């Protein structure tokens, strides 16, 4: 049986005498031509290797070379059958076009609101027959949340031609029973800047200093108001002052890549993987395997269901060097900037003061930062019932 | 768009590894420079400093890139012999 890549790109069958099969295999090995050699002297060789193999076998080993087989052979023999090619192209175009439409919409997470959700989705443009390219998932999710008063959260996922809509209803927590009652507590030390209560009652006010774990909004209803429990909800903004530090070391070790060898090439077509090249061997300690995928586009707009996956083995050696004073400071400040970017991503910065000092190992940069962010986190109230 | 990169044939070090496959074995051998014998019952592979003799039933040889070869079939014995000759 031929390999899938030889079928796709074409091959010829070579035949030698049984007693010459070992010499034939040795020639293939010498030329680096992959092929399976049977003991009776048959081998299927890729089309692009046939010329080199013929030249090597001429005058050395008597052989017979068959006609072109595989897809190129089929195309060549049927080159005058225009209807067949037209049929293939038409079929491919129909499959490609129809895969860009929604064939089914499935709602998961709720049974009772399923029909209502489907109707709502229909009015917003997500229904059977709609084109995926015309659907803005984020806008659709936001619009659906605005129009529905029963849905607390939803997510739309595309799997092939089916749209899966996962829905969480607003009272599902109560039905679940696990997280029906909760308090809002402080997630860190802060000074309260702003507090907005949606459910429950606040036990702190603006200007109060709180520590991590302190109660901010209580889910326990006081007796004079009827008693009982609720799930406390609200936004609590706190002002936080913290010091962040980063140290850059003087001695730096880095990898210097010295060689690159392709290990594996495969194509994924409609979910099926076809391996074209596979290099096996022992891996040394100092090597990285880098894998990357490449997608193919039609007219730079439509993504084809073909992906090329390449795996490259990169051997490296470890090198070290000593940073200069300027490089040391620059590295520490760059790390500090990245740390602050990641930490303060959903915060509002009020003040920052950065300084640094040289240490035994390198340079230590530190920043005193004052910022505001949401500090409330939900803590479950455990009841006996 | 295709990517073509010619990889130089490397004189890799000799190695072999075997794994079960179906009702037989798949033995991959690296650093092979020649084939001494090829038949259904016996295959002899030659490297720079050793020879590997594989005996069994229904054996076939697949040549791979990078001086590697793969033997498939019901492998009964493997002998490692010193020297090319």
Summarize it.
The complex is a heterodimer of chains A (385) and B (85). Chain A is built from 9 helices and 20 strands.
What does this structure look like?
- Chain A has 385 residues and is α+β, with helices and mostly antiparallel strands.
- In chain A, 26% of the residues lie in helices and 43% in strands.
- Chain A has helices at residues 4-9, 21-31, 47-57, 70-77, 82-98, 114-124, 137-147, 172-176, 325-343, and strands spanning 11-16, 35-37, 42-46, 63-65, 104-108, 151-159, 162-169, 182-186, 190-199, 201-202, 209-210, 215-218, 233-249, 251-269, 272-278, 287-298, 302-322, 348-358, 362-374, 376-380.
- Chain A has a five-stranded antiparallel sheet with strand order 11-9-13-19-18.
- The radius of gyration of chain A is 34 Å and the shape is flat.
- Chain B is mainly β and 85 residues long.
- Helices cover 0% and strands 67% of the residues of chain B.
- Chain B is built from no helices and six strands.
- A six-stranded antiparallel sheet of chain B has the order 1-2-6-5-4-3, with no helix packed on it.
- In chain B, strand 1 and strand 2 (24-30) form a beta hairpin.
- The chains are: A alpha+beta (385), B mainly beta (85).
- Chains A and B meet through helix 2, strand 2 and strand 14 of A and strand 3 and strand 5 of B.
- Strand 2 (35-37) of chain A pairs antiparallel with strand 5 (50-64) of chain B, so a sheet runs across the interface.
């Amino acid at each position: 049986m031929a390999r899938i890549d030889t079928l796709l790109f074409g091959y010829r069958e070579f035949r030698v005498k049984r007693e010459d099969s070992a010499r034939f295999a040795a020639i293939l090995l010498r030329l680096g031509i992959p092929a399976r050699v049977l003991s009776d002297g048959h081998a299927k060789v890729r089309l692009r290797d046939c010329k080199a193999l013929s030249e090597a076998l001429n005058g050395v080993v008597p052989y017979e070379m068959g006609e072109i087989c595989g897809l190129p052979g089929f195309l060549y023999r049927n080159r005058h059958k225009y209807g067949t090619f037209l049929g293939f192209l038409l079929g491919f175009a129909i499959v490609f076009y129809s895969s860009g439409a929604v064939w089914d919409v499935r709602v998961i997470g709720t049974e009772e609101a399923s029909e209502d959700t489907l109707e709502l989705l229909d009015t917003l443009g997500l229904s059977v027959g709609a084109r995926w390219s015309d659907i803005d998932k984020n806008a659709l999710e936001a619009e659906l949340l605005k129009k529905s008063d029963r849905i607390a959260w939803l997510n739309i996922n595309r799997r092939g031609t089916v749209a899966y809509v996962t829905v969480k209803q607003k009272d599902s927590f109560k039905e679940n029973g696990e997280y029906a009652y909760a308090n809002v507590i402080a997630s860190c030390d802060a000074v309260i800047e702003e507090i907005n209560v949606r459910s429950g009652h606040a036990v702190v006010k603006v200007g109060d200093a709180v520590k991590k774990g302190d109660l901010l909004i209580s889910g326990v209803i006081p007796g004079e108001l009827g008693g009982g429990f609720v799930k406390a909800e609200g936004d609590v903004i706190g002002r936080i002052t913290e010091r962040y530090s980063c140290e850059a070391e003087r001695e730096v070790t880095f990898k210097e890549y010295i060689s690159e060898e392709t290990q594996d090439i495969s194509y994924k077509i409609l979910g099926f993987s076809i391996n074209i090249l596979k290099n096996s061997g022992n891996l040394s300690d100092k090597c990285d395997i880098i894998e990357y995928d490449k997608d193919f586009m039609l007219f730079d707009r439509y993504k084809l269901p073909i992906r090329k996956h390449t795996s490259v083995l990169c051997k490296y050696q470890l090198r070290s060097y000593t940073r200069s004073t300027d490089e040391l400071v620059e590295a520490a400040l760059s790390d500090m900037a990245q740390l602050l970017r990641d930490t303060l991503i959903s915060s509002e910065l009020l003040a920052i003061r950065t300084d640094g000092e040289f240490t035994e190992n390198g340079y230590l940069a530190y920043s005193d930062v004052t910022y505001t962010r949401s500090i409330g986190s939900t803590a479950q109230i455990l009841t006996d019932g | 768009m295709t990517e073509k990169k010619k990889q130089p044939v490397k004189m890799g070090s000799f190695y072999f590894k075997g794994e079960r496959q179906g009702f037989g074995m798949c033995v991959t051998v690296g650093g092979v420079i020649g084939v001494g014998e090829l038949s259904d019952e016996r295959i002899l592979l030659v490297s720079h400093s050793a020879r590997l003799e594989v005996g069994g039933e229904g054996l076939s040889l697949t040549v791979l890139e990078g001086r590697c070869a793969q033997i498939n079939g019901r492998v009964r014995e493997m002998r490692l012999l010193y020297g090319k000759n």
